[in-house]
Amino acid sequence: MSWLILFIAGLFEAAWAIGIKQCSGFTKLWPSVYTLIMMAISIFLLSVAVKNLPIGTAYAVWTGIGAVSTVLIGIFYFNEPRDMLRIFFILLIIAGIAGLHWTVR
């Protein structure tokens, strides 16, 4: 269950990362409120997951899930570059997440 909670926490990390883009340096009220709520949920879920997972592994997986999700959202919703080299490095992050998951059972 801790891995599922950690995965969801990573998705909330991506949500607040996208919120940062929308709130323009916390100058827009509702995007800023959204971003802060997503941050709080993400951190809370991370704190729940680390009760049963090593902090180093959990933090690396959390940031990896957030990073991959944010890049994919950027590609599909903000028309950011989608060249093969960029996709290759995203796959390396995914491989790192999977490797960390497999080493902690």
Number of strands: 0
The number of distinct helices, counting runs of at least 4 residues, comes to 4
What class, by secondary structure content? mainly alpha
Number of domains: 1
Overall mean pLDDT: 96
Q: Considering DSSP H and I runs of 4 or more, what fraction of the residues is helical?
A: over 70%
Series of secondary-structure elements, N-terminal to C-terminal: HHHH
Outline the low-pLDDT stretches. Answer: none
Alpha carbon gyration radius: 15 Å
Strand content: under 5%
Ends distance: 12 Å
Shape annotation? flat
Tell me about the largest β-sheet: none
Any overview of this molecule?
It is flat and about 40 Å long. Helices cover 82% and strands 0% of the residues. With 105 residues, the chain is mainly alpha-helical. Helix 1 runs antiparallel to helix 2, helix 1 crosses helix 3 and helix 3 packs antiparallel against helix 4. The chain is built from four helices and no strands. The mean pLDDT is 96. The longest helix has 23 residues.
